[in-house]
Amino acid sequence: SGDFYAAELDTQTRFAWGMFLSGGYFAFYEDDSSRIGSAGWIAGAKRLQILRTIVESLRFWEMSPIDANGNEYDSLITQGPSGTNKQLIAKPGSEYLAYFWGSKTTTPVKITLPSGSYTYEWHDPRTGTKLLSGSVASTGSATISVPSTAVWSETVGLALIIRKS
């Protein structure tokens, strides 16, 4: 029933973000036309629209989850707010999109970035709301503050955009 969307909304949102950041895609398909337009279906469609809006703020088609040798960019992040639960796509030195989910902490993100100035924005994947933004200087690595645990969900997580200034 349409209740599936409401009942599984947060886990499906996490799955959609995980699929995108691992280089895949997520389809929101419904073959029962009576469910299209239900409250749960609309909530799911809105979550995918939020993912799309955040992703399209970047030159995502130039980004990848792996480098030319097949090594995952995830390893550029050595610390974050959810332990080892993270995924990263990047165009190194230019743009990065990280996704964190799971246990909530305010442990800052430590990420390897080429020297220079960067801006960052944290977004809530449930609403698209910008939770925190700022700038950081890197000398090969940078430490980025994390939003309060009161404003994000363990199940859905957080999205972090980093851009070279």
Layout: helices, strands, pairs:
Blueprint: H1 3-7, H2 9-21, H3 39-55, E1 77-79, E2 86-91, E3 95-100, E4 109-123, E5 130-144, E6 158-164
Antiparallel strand pairs: 1-4, 2-3, 3-6, 4-5, 4-6
Describe this structure in words.
By secondary structure, this protein is α+β, with helices and mostly antiparallel strands. It has helices at residues 3-7, 9-21, 39-55; strands spanning 77-79, 86-91, 95-100, 109-123, 130-144, 158-164. Strand 4 and strand 5 (130-144) form a beta hairpin. The protein is globular, with a radius of gyration of 16 Å.
Keywords:
3 helices; alpha+beta; 165 residues
Summarize the structure.
The chain has 165 residues and is an alpha+beta fold. The protein is 21% helix and 32% strand. The longest helix has 17 residues, at 39-55.
- The total beta strand count reads 6
Quickly count the helices: 3
Structural class of the helices, strands and pairings?
A: alpha+beta
Gyration radius, in Å: 16 Å
Encode the helix/strand succession as letters: HHHEEEEEE
Helix fraction by DSSP (H/I, runs of at least 4):
10-25%
Span between termini:
47 Å
Q: State the low-pLDDT regions, or none.
A: none
